[in-house]
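WARN retry 2 of 3 for item q-0093 after timeout on previous attempt; input resubmitted unchanged.
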Amino acid sequence: MSELQTKAWAVSETLSGHYGVPRFSGGDEPIDELIGTILSANTNDVNSGRAFAQLKATFGSDWDAVRTAPLAAIKEAIRPAGMYNQKAPAIVATLEQVKTERGDYDLRFLAEMPATEALAYLTRFPGVGHKTASIVLLFCFNGAAFPVDTHIQRISRRLGITGRRASAEKIKQAWELLLPPDTFYALHINLIRHGRQTCQALTPRCEICPLQQLCHYYHGEGEWKSGA
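OK item q-0093 returned
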């Protein structure tokens, strides 16, 4: 086991000891998750959640009704998520493509596909990037994909799991190479918890951080020491 793999395991186990081990207890509806993640782009969970709830309240669970609705009605429903002029057409185009290819809106077949193929399938849709597709696979199927949000990106860089300027996709690749898929769900959730509660962007609470001994940022090591 490499030094970096040893560190990755230590991070995973330390966070599980500190926050507990979240258990995957059954997946969300894939099409709901897919539309929800399109809404989540460039906004926070509260706003995207409100927009999704408002979309459901307006159209019910009938995705055909959303697909065939006037764009103005969809934009109004998802207004809390922001960027509704871009997100509404992306939602309609996604629903149209799924309906054309599958005959319905059931995406549960993705559970049987290798993660790389499922990611390739999902990222063909407008407004669906690698992060969005990875969220669908992880939260619907406990799949072998590790989504990286701003919290995970920040913590991974500070820990030295990747370089200080690594992109979200590079960080995703790093975790997926370092740890087995059965750790992804718990680690993803715990890293986000840690980012919200302790390893914050502007004022990290290093004095209470359980990852102190593993952290390049805390010790001023690597690129953090050089200021590069």
